[in-house]
Sequence to fold (284 residues):
Amino acid sequence: MFGAEPSDAVHLFFKAAEAGSARALGAIGELHELGLGMEKSPKDAMVWYRRAAAAGDAESRARLGMMLINSQAVGSLEEGVELVRKAASQGNPFGQSAMGQLQLQGLGVPRDEDAAIRSLVAAAEQEVPAANRLLGKIYLEGRLVHRDPAMAATLLVEAARVGDVAAQTQLGVLYRDGEGVEPDAREAAYWFERAVERGDAEAMSSLGGLLMHGDEQIKNIDRAIELLRRAAELGQASAQFQLGQSLIEGEGVDKDPEQGMRWLRTAAASGFPQATAFMEEIRQ
Fold:
């Protein structure tokens, strides 16, 4: 499913679903939700999750619950929370992870950070990628637990290696900055690239910056500009700033101050302070 040919998983899951596997029904929903091997379609994902939940699959119940919550449709919060709560009470790891997320935010349930940590730890022990990623972020921030970047990196690796896009991007940042791990530009580029393959704009921006300003072993200015442009067009403010700066200075691309200023203004309007500071510097 998360390998080089996710389409190979489609046939296998459909075959298992036809044989009566409720988990396979849910996996087809996940393929639709993530756009792996088939068209990305939240609507179809929810249809498959409902079928799987009706057949008794607790993970699909929790996944459906989170989709309903994130949809922000009228009445969806209450239904979504109830689905997550039921899956968590059944001991389903994804349900426990989802409940931890809700408890951290106080979304539809009372805010309870201690309970959230317990829920996430229980899910992480059963290798739920989202739980590993969230715990990694918690250890990196050091707000609810003692700050431990090395532990954060370990948890993020567990999530990243099974396809969690946000974990892949964050792990790339750790390797780029040498936080919790030895700095390694090649390893950073590897994880950024995995997230770029899944369309993550933040990873595009980070990889673009790395290839633009990295050492000679990984420097690739043409690829950097391509990635920054893709991310900028997707609305990623850091990429808009970097692309605007490159166009104004003629770094890796023909100078085009007018287009460069347009990207800088767009980044500044998104609240990116470096863009505002750079425009003020130009004016002076």
The chain has a mean pLDDT of 94. Residues 58-71 form the longest helix (14 residues). The chain is about 70% helix and 0% strand. Residues 211 and 219 are 5 Å apart (CA to CA).
